[in-house]
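Lesson 9: reading folded outputs for more than one chain in a single document. The general rule is that every protein is listed as its sequence immediately followed by its C-alpha cells, and records are never interleaved. Here is the first one.
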Amino acid sequence: MFRPSLVVMFATALAVSACNADATRGTAAADTAAVSVSAVTVSEQPITRFIRVSGTLMAQEDAEVAAEVAGRVVATPVERGSLVRSNDDLIRIASADADAQAREAQANAAQIEARLGLEGGGAFDVERVPEVANAKANRQLAQNDFSRAKRLYDDKLLSQSEFDQRSMQVEAAERQYDVAKNGAAQQYQALMGARARVAMAQKALADTVVRAPFAGAIGERFVSVGDYVTKGTKVASVLRIDPLRVELTVPEQYVSAVAVGRAVTFEVDAYPGETFTGAVRYVSPSVTAATRALTLEAIVPNTAGRLKPGFFATARIEEAQKRPGILVPAAAVRTVAGTARVFVIAAGRAEERIVMTGQVVGDQIEIATGLKGGERVATAGLDQLVDGVAVAVK
C-alpha cells in the first residue's frame, strides 16, 4: 500500500534536484553574459554659462558725407560698394574759383609781409619794420642834436630859441617813433587777418575734393557728374565694416550676468554652422520700460568682410560668474526620439535614466536633472545595455 507514495516522493526529489541544477547553470550563464563597459564618476564643477539672445549687425560707423563748398561736380571716382581708404576721393567739384581766391588771398598776405619786412618768413620784430627803423634813426639823430645843443646852451654859446627848437625836434621824433610802432602793430594784425583769409581760401580749395572720413565701403552715392551742389549737400554714405557692431537685447533677469568685456559668440543665417566671436563693449545703463530688456553692444572683427550690416544674429553671451553643474562625457549620453538617456552603474547592473541636458562644454555635456554627484555612468558599450542588465566595469 505504501509503494505508490514512495514512488511519488522519489519522483519529486528528482524534480527538485533537476530544478536546482538548472538554476545553478542559469546563474553561471548570467554571470558569463555580463556586458563589459567603461564608466566614470560624475561630480559637480564650475561651468561657464551663456545667455542666448538675438540681435542685428550694424556698421561700426555710418557717415553721410556732405559737400562743404558749392560748385559743379566734375568727377565721381566711387560707386556703390566701392572699398575706400581714409581720405580717398569721393567726388570732385570744379575748383577754378576757389583756386583764384586762394591765390588772391596769398598775394594780399605777401604784400603786407613785404611792408613789414617778413619776406623770409621770420618772426615779427617791430624794430625791423622799415618805417619804425627810419623813425628810430630820426629820433636818435634828434637826441644827438639836442645833446650838442644842450652843451652849447650850458656854455652860453646857444640862444634860448635855438635850444627850444632842438628840444621840440626831439619830442617830435619821439612821437613819430611811437606812431611808426603803432602803425607796424596794426599792419601785423592786418597780416594775421590776411593769413586767416589765406587759410580759409586754401581750405575752400581743398574742400572741392570731398574725401572719405575713414576706411570702409560706399553705401550710396547721391550725386553724379554735372550736378550742382551747395554746402551741406549729401554726396555719399560711407560705412566702416571692420569691425562691426552687434546690438543685442538681453532680458531683464540676466542684467546682473552681463558686463563689458564678456565674450560673445553668434551665428548668422548666411553661414550655417559657422560661429563668429566678439566682445561686449557697451552695456546700457537703463532697462527699456516697454520691453523690460537691456541693450548691449559687442564689437566683432570683420577682416574678410564676410559679415554684412543688417544680418540677424543669434548669440550667446558669457555670463560674468560661473555656476556649478554636473558634466558627463558626451559618449555617456544616448538620445532616442529626442529623449536623452544615461546608464547609471550600481551594484553590478545598469540602470537606465532619462535626463535633461544643459549646455555643451567641450567634449562634455551638462546634465541639468536626473543625475547626482558621485554616481557612475557608462561611457562605452551603451548599444549593448538595457535597463537591469549585468555589467562588468573595465
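And here is the second record, again sequence then C-alpha cells.
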Amino acid sequence: MSFRMQAPVFRLLLPFAAGIFLYDVFPKENSQVLYGLAGLFTVVGVVQLLPLSWRWKLSGLNGIFFLSILLLTGFCYAALRDLRNEFDWVGQKEFSKQYYLVQIREEPKRTSSGWKITADLLARNDSINTERISGGLFLYTKEDSVAQQASPGTEAWIQVKPRPIVNKANSSFDYARYCRLQKITHQAYLSAPNQIQFLTPSKNNLPSLLHQTRTYIRTILYKCLRDSLHGGLATALFVGWKGGLDPELKQHYTRTGTIHIIAISGLHISLVFEMIWRLLFFLVYLRGRNVLRTSITLLVVWGFCFLAGGEASVLRAGIMFTAVQLGRGLERPVSGQQALGLSLLTLLIADPDWLFDPGCQLSHGAVAGILLLHPIFSSVGKIENPMLKNIWDSSCMTLAATIGTLPFTVYYFQ
C-alpha cells in the first residue's frame, strides 16, 4: 500500500503547511491574499456551473484549484494568527513607562546576572483609562523575592517601559525571530521590587493549578530521593522539569546521544498509556468496557501531557495515541503515517508557528523516519536468533530515527 493511500491527510497538510511557510518568507497584507482566495473560490464555482462536457475537459484543473485554495488558506491563517497583526498588539502602541497587567507564563529561569521571567501582556493603564493589550515579554530582575512569587498563572501589575527585542550586532542568529515564534516580542527590566505588584491567584486558574501539582510532585520526589542528582533526574522524567538536572549529568547524556530519554516524548507517553491500560484490567467485566477503559486512559495521558509542559514532542505523542485508539474503538484503524499527519495538522491549526519549532520538527522527523525507513532496514537479512534479532531491530530503529532528524540537526547544529 502506498504512503499516499495510508495517509490521505497529507493531501491537506502539505499545501496548508506550505502556505504557512510562504507567509513566513514573504509576509504580505492580508487583503491581497484574501482577494486571491476569493478569486479561486469564484473560479471553482463558475466551473461547477458549466456543462458536463466542459467540466470533464477541465477536470485536470480541479486538483490545482484545490491545492491552491489550501495553500492560500494556510497563508491567510498564518497571517490571522500573527500577533503582530492584532489591533491591540503592544508593538502598535506608544512605549512609555506605564502600568501593565501581565500573567506569568512559565517558571522563572536563572541567568548569569539574575532571573528571566516570561509573561503575557493583558492590559495597560495610563492613569486615565485601562485598555486591553496583547503580546509577550521577558522581564529581567535581580531580586530573588520577585522570582519566588512569579509562579505560572499569577497575575501582576508592573511599571515598566517595554522595549522591542532586537538582534545583536554582527550576530548570525536571528534571536528576535526565535523569540517571536514563542510569542515574545518585547523585554523590560525590573530594577526595584516595588515595580511589580502580584495579585492573589484565582482558584480556577489552570496554569497555576498545573504548577502547584508539578511542585507537589517534585517535593515528593525530592523527599523520597534525597540525593539531589537522582531527584533532579526523576523530576525531569516525571514532570518534564529540568531545572534540577545536574549540568555534568546532562552533558553526559548529550555526548552519548541519549538526551532524548530526559525529554518527555513518545516513549514516556507509551509507558504511561500501557501502565494505566493494564491497571484498568478489571473494567473488562463491565458493559461498555472498551469505551470506558479507553476514555479513562486517554484522560490520564492528556493530563500527563499538560502536566509535563505541553511541549511539541509530548503533544505529538498524545495526539497520535488518541488517533490510533479512537480508530480502534470505531473499528476504523488509523495507520502510523495517518496519525503522524493528523498530529502535525492539529498542532498547526492550534498554532502555525509550531511549523518552525525545532522540537516539533525533530519529533515529527524522527517518527517519520521510523515509520518509513524502519520496515526497510529491518527486512534486510533474516536473523533467527531472538536476541540478535532484537538488537538488529533496535539498531534499525535508531538509524531510521537518526536519518529522519538529520536534515534538521544539520540545519540547526551544523
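What the second record shows: The first strand starts at residue 98 and ends at 104.
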